[in-house]
Amino acid sequence: MTPRHRATAVAVLALVGLLALPALAGAQMIGIYRNGLETLAQRSQLTKLSGRSCDRAGVNGVLRVGVGKKTEACSLRTPVVGRDLEILATERLLSGTPAALQRKAYLGLQLRAGGGGKYELRVFPLQRKVQLVKVTAEATKYLAIVKNEAAVKGINKANALRLRAVNVTSGPEKGQVSLLAFLGSKRVAEATDAAGGELQGRASAVTVGAPHSANGVLASFDDVVIRLPSPF
Fold first, then answer.
1. Backbone φ, ψ for residue 25 (5° rounding)
2. Backbone region of residue 16 per phi and psi (left: phi > 0; alpha: psi in -120 to 50; beta: other values)
3. How crowded is residue 38: how many other Cβ atoms within 10 Å of its Cβ?
4. What is the model's pTM?
5. Helix (H), strand (E) at residue 5
6. CA 23, 24, 28, 33 torsion: positive or negative?
7. Residue 57 to residue 167: CA distance in whole angstroms
8. pLDDT tens for residues 107-160?
9. How far apart are the C-alpha atoms of 71 and 68, rounded to whole Å?
10. Distance (Å, rounded) from C-alpha 28 to C-alpha 76?
């Protein structure tokens, strides 16, 4: 099976699973996709979701992304699409980023992305700040902000990001979206969104950027994993 066919099969698997299984916010998650980004074929499975100017290269077994002119962020989508997902990736803000941009630069993950909307986890390595953000065509809403988080690692250090967005199917929060954010094994932020239906996108992605302009920001991505809620 070629890499392209494998990617298509994974996307179909995610959609079939989501149609067949009820999602529970507290359910155990099972992995359905893993990409070490070690080879050109593996790195090619991540395709541009957004960003006017984004340079990419394979360096030392990781995917390196540089943000270019007139670009606020570069986002690369995985082949997995679906509503209730968890995405993990190891990300680094690299020292090649201009000093003037290092403090405001962030690493991130996206779920339910598309059509101008998304849930996004943003981690600012030099500020040691974490944000859970909901973006729609009308506005950007900060669902959670955590400052001085010790789990955030600095320049050239590996940050193991994890973001989960799952619809609640029972109890007083039924119909709402449960959002959980982790760095490594530590839960660093959580939120509940009662208006999750505003997001119609189903893409999952990794991202790097900086508010207003990220020209020159440089980051690397490794070990991308996608999980689904388990039915068991």
1. -60, -35
2. alpha
3. 15
4. 0.89
5. helix 3-20
6. positive
7. 36
8. 999 999 999 999 999 999 999 999 999 999 899 999 999 999 999 999 999 999
9. 6
10. 26
